[in-house]
Design a protein that fits this description.
This protein has 87 residues and is mostly helical. Helix content is 80%, strand content 0%. The relative contact order is 0.11.
């Protein structure tokens, strides 16, 4: 599901909750509360998706030079040797 879909679902569920007394006059407030809670969950999912997408975009735009696997291994070996008291 896309972020847009989550926002659309949240809006639909909120509108449905607001119109429920007119659509089903005999329905209790528990159904309205359930629809509101589902809308809140959809909105939370959309916000989380937005947050993840923003984090990924920042990570992708980071042009900082990384370390190769061999460099990381050597760094870890050197650190392990240092902690053993060898260096």
């Amino acid at each position: 599901m896309t972020t847009t879909t989550h926002y659309e679902n949240a809006n639909f569920l909120r509108e449905l909750a607001e119109n429920l007394p007119r659509i089903l006059p005999t329905s209790g407030s528990d159904k309205m509360e359930l629809l509101q809670r589902l809308a809140d969950e959809e909105l939370a999912q959309a916000e989380y998706d937005d947050w993840v997408r923003a984090k990924v975009a920042v990570a992708r735009s980071d042009k900082q030079t990384g370390m190769s696997t061999d460099q990381v291994r050597q760094l870890l070996r050197d650190r392990a040797e240092e902690l053993r008291g060898g260096a």
